[in-house]
Specification:
Blueprint: H1 9-21, H2 24-28, H3 41-66, H4 83-88, E1 95-96, H5 102-112, H6 117-125, H7 159-174, E2 187-192, H8 199-213, E3 220-226, E4 229-230, E5 233-234, H9 239-244, E6 251-255, H10 259-276, E7 280-285, H11 304-312, H12 315-325, H13 331-352, H14 361-365, H15 376-385, H16 400-414, E8 418-422, H17 438-442, E9 447-449, H18 454-466, E10 470-475, H19 478-481, H20 486-492, H21 495-498, E11 507-513, H22 531-534, E12 540-542, H23 547-564, E13 567-573, E14 607-609, E15 616-620, H24 622-639, E16 643-647, E17 650-652, H25 656-663, E18 668-676, H26 683-692, E19 699-704, H27 722-733
Parallel strand pairs: 1-2, 2-3, 3-7, 6-7, 8-9, 8-10, 10-11, 11-13, 12-13, 15-16, 15-18, 18-19
Antiparallel strand pairs: 4-5, 12-17, 14-16
């Protein structure tokens, strides 16, 4: 065995099963009704059918891959006892599942009468556009009718949003939102024993316990499918029990042994979770058969005796013996069922052999909305229909912070399903007071504090969104987002892509952002890098500078989230929250009045300042806009130059069409990017666009140094300054 591929091990197991079913003694066993307390005969047979179907798909996946027309070989072989969950759960209990969930999915589909499940899975293995779930983008376990939310994670990053969804079930109904599942639904979230060690898994489980301790209903069933291996790494003996069994606020249930014992323990766990509305941890014993995936050579890290011992634990062999020895089925019956399923799968494999892949890149990326501009007329009509009752708080001071507070007040009135939450946003009103008074005005059900964990905040947002609410989470500082950015990149923004748009995680994420705070914070509170956000496909980035713009943009962001299912991040420049002056102390040049109630700003729109036909245009955003306006006045007064300033406002997608219109007459262009020089801001993209579109003017940029922001006055040594803008502008004009 050593040195050769283990891809044929499933075929060996198949032969062993057939040999068992050909045993004359087993074939002769008489069928009788199940005894009291044992799993019902019809349920046991149905489970075995689901398990046979799952194994047949695993074999088909290896065969299709060997022929060069299949693209996924992580199998469910050895995990088939999870079919018990598919049979016992209600068909509208939301599920976020481990990638070895084949038998569970098939059992659930059988219960729901979804007869096309086998063909659907084969189409996904073929990466075909006809796959009703991901449409060829990936192999996922997902289904809108079966309420299985697609996951592509192998590291349990779906646990935080599963907890958020469980938290949302009762919260949504309290706010008059009826989720697409029953009031007593529970959320099921499965993962492997190796993934249980990941920070996101621990964060999710901890968040469920924390919420339960705080008195919230969190009906989630964590299912750890423990096969003892993480690819080649062994899980220490009793690690899962020792890690999770003794925890308070988490009821631990072990499911092991024969099929009827697993059935009973799983039923107990489900019933307790449903009745108590509290988190339950179901530890399901499994075995991994045939390697991690088709390309995995187990003999490189397991002894032949270890592989043989694992194969002795094949649940299909154990269940065939259980059924025949207990008189629930004859071996002949099981053999006929096996043959029928194999014939069905063979026919389906031929049927999907020529199934077409995705046809073009535009179709491929369509669910991300990258090339789809917001529909202003539709969004405006939707806002008009949602005219809020009462009058929103006015921003009398006119600062950015005051306008944002007024805008959030307006948002909560306009969208009864909106919730604002994060660290310190409730009773305290946020570190900078932006949410002050909102919890008192709208109640703790809609404006509330979370535990201090960004992963939990973003996971909660995704779960609330899946339940039909409009989440408005806050990340206290931009630097803190990096602790949890995979919840955006790998989860929230990818969900529409991997589900063909049938599932989405719309949210309006507020982040206190950028640098230039005087005398406060250092690099954790002065983060000047957004490259990690700009690279996320489909994520919309808004960066207001003036207060009235912020309020208009907030309205547009909320409309896109609610009506178009978008994930939007509002990057709020901290240093401008309470700025009043622009040029001289006391001039109140940064203050703006509240915009008209029907005024809304959407991606693609820019702000233009300065004279017509400028000879130089400064292109910037956020703090850079303020610096640019000040530099422009100096260039005009001291050097007699006509200088225009563009406020980009939207950093993803960048408003290139509007920018091109301003630069069409050929002025020099200086991009003032407050982010770090290398890959951290927008200057690279703007300058590349000008070059690639054949723009004939001269252009350059000023950017911050490639450095973290130090504490105190030394921050000025690495950040973009007004003097640098003026000097660079003069040098650029000399090149014309």
């Amino acid at each position: 065995m050593a040195g050769q591929s283990d891809a044929n091990r499933l075929i060996v197991l198949e032969r062993r099963l057939l040999d068992l079913l050909a045993d004359t003694d087993a074939a002769a066993a008489s069928v009788r009704p199940a005894s009291a307390g044992m799993i019902p005969a019809d349920a046991a047979l149905s489970l075995f059918e689901a398990q046979l179907r799952s194994r047949a798909l695993d074999l088909a996946a290896r065969r299709l891959r060997a022929e060069g027309i299949g693209y996924y070989t992580i199998s469910s072989a050895g995990h088939e006892q999870n079919a018990v969950l598919g049979a016992l759960l209600e068909v509208d209990d939301p599920c976020l599942l481990h990638y070895r969930a084949g038998a569970l999915v098939i059992a659930r589909a059988m219960r729901a009468g979804h007869h096309a499940i086998m063909r659907d899975v084969l189409l996904s293995l073929r990466a075909s556009a006809l796959d009703p779930v991901a449409q060829g983008r990936h192999k996922v376990w997902g289904s809108r009718p079966l309420w299985i939310v697609p996951q592509t994670s192998t590291i349990a990053s779906h646990l935080p949003k599963a907890v958020g969804l469980a938290f949302a079930i009762s919260r949504a109904r309290r706010l008059g939102v009826v989720p697409p599942f029953s009031p007593n639904a529970i959320v099921v979230c499965s993962f492997g024993d190796a993934s249980a060690n990941h920070a996101s898994a621990l964060s999710g489980i901890h968040a469920a316990r924390y919420a339960h301790r705080r008195g919230h209903a969190v009906p989630i069933l964590f299912v750890c499918e423990d096969n003892g291996l993480g690819i080649s790494e062994r899980t220490p003996r009793d690690w899962i029990y020792d890690s999770f069994g003794p925890l308070r606020d988490l009821d631990y249930v072990r499911a092991t042994g024969s099929l009827d014992a697993i059935w009973a323990r799983a039923a107990e766990a489900i019933a307790h979770c449903r009745e108590s509305r509290s988190p339950v941890f179901l530890h399901l014993d499994c075995v991994r058969l045939g390697g991690h995936a088709g390309s995995d050579v187990e003999s490189a890290y397991l002894l032949a005796s270890e592989i043989a011992a694992m194969e002795e634990r094949d649940p299909l062999l154990a269940n065939a013996r259980f059924l025949t020895l207990n008189g629930l089925a004859s071996a002949d019956d099981l053999a006929r069922l096996h043959a029928a399923i194999r014939e069905e799968v063979d026919l389906l494999c031929e049927e999907v052999r020529d199934a077409p892949p995705l046809s073009d890149a535009r179709t491929l990326v369509a669910p991300l909305g990258i090339d789809r501009a917001p529909d202003r007329s539709a969004l405006t009509a939707a806002r008009t229909q949602r005219a809020p009752e009462g009058v929103a708080e006015e921003a009398s001071a006119g600062t950015l912070g005051a306008q944002l507070r007024a805008g959030l007040d307006e948002l909560l009135r306009e969208y009864p399903e909106a919730l604002i939450f994060g660290e310190d946003v409730g009773r305290k009103g946020g570190v900078y007071g932006i949410t002050a008074g909102l919890a008192r005005r709208f109640g703790a059900a809609r404006v509330f504090d979370t535990q201090v964990d960004e992963t939990t905040i973003l996971g909660t947002a995704q779960g609330l969104a899946l339940a039909g609410l409009l989440p408005v989470p806050e990340i206290q500082y931009l630097a803190y987002l990096h602790n949890a950015i995979d919840q955006l990149r790998g989860e929230a923004c990818s969900l529409a892509f991997f589900s063909g748009g049938s599932f989405r995680s719309p949210m309006l994420l507020r982040i206190a952002s950028f640098a230039y705070q005087k005398g406060f914070g250092g690099h954790f509170h002065n983060e000047n890098a957004i490259g990690a956000l700009r690279e996320i496909p489909g994520l919309v980035l808004a960066a207001p500078a003036f207060g009235d713009d912020a309020r208009r943009m907030l309205r547009g962001c909320a409309a896109m989230v609610r009506e178009e299912g978008r994930v939007v991040a509002l990057l709020e420049p901290i240093a401008l929250y309470f700025e009043r002056d622009l040029y001289e102390k006391g001039d109140d040049g940064w203050l703006r009045g509240a915009p008209l109630s029907d005024a809304m700003s959407l991606p693609g729109e820019i702000g233009c300042h300065g004279p017509d036909a400028p000879e130089l245009v400064l292109v910037s955003y956020a703090n850079g806009l303020r610096l640019s306006l000040r530099a422009a006045r100096r260039l005009e007064r001291e050097h007699g130059l006509r200088v225009g300033v563009i406020d980009l406002r939207w950093l993803a997608p960048l408003p290139f069409a509007a920018l091109d219109a301003v630069l069409a007459d050929g002025p020099a262009c200086l991009v003032v990017d407050e982010c770090r020089r290398t890959g951290a801001g927008i200057a690279d993209a703007v300058l590349a666009h000008l070059v690639e579109t054949g723009w004939r003017g001269v252009a350059t940029s000023v950017r911050a140094a490639d450095s973290y922001v130090p504490l105190g006055p030394s921050a000025d040594m690495v950040l973009v300054g007004e003097e640098e803008i003026v000097e660079t502008a003069l040098g650029l004009l000399e090149q014309r």
